[in-house]
């Protein structure tokens, strides 16, 4: 029985991106139990929109996908297998980044086992993860990192909160999704938008 919900947060002007993201979900070798698309009609921001999507999830696992990114066909199958075999609460794979030359790693962490101390120093895990739903809700979902005032990374704040409630992180050293990084800033450095400047 599949127990994964895919969550995508978006805004109305990004329909073309959203349709590509949804098409990539439809091509999965392991189909999700459900898909939640949450719109930010009131301009409440990315974190609030993703958390509204999370609140609607009733499955054991939640797989997040940014609206301008895409799953490769084996993404859900491989991250779910990884969670089952390792007992992980959070699984994060390697993205394919079309903007960069082959083999370039903008984060310096692809294929490297999870390092809690490194994650507490800087953000290096993308939103596109598989997370144990109940634990993520307990941790408070997406949020700005409390110890880094002014940092815009709501996903980093989420991972730090999950660490604080004892979550087990596992890196899947396989390329399973497309990260359309648009070059607005530097990954892992305050000021990066993780997408187009007009996202939110």
Considering the chains and any ligands shown, give keywords for the structure.
single chain, 200 residues, alpha/beta, Spore Coat Polysaccharide Biosynthesis Protein SpsA, Chain A, 7-stranded mixed beta sheet
Question: How would you describe this structure to a colleague?
Answer:
The chain has 200 residues and is an alpha/beta fold. It has a domain of 135 residues: Spore Coat Polysaccharide Biosynthesis Protein SpsA, Chain A (Alpha-Beta Complex), CATH 3.90.550. 29% of the residues lie in helices and 20% in strands. A 7-stranded mixed sheet has the order 2-1-3-6-5-7-4, with helices on both faces. Helix 5 packs across helix 6. The C terminus is likely disordered.
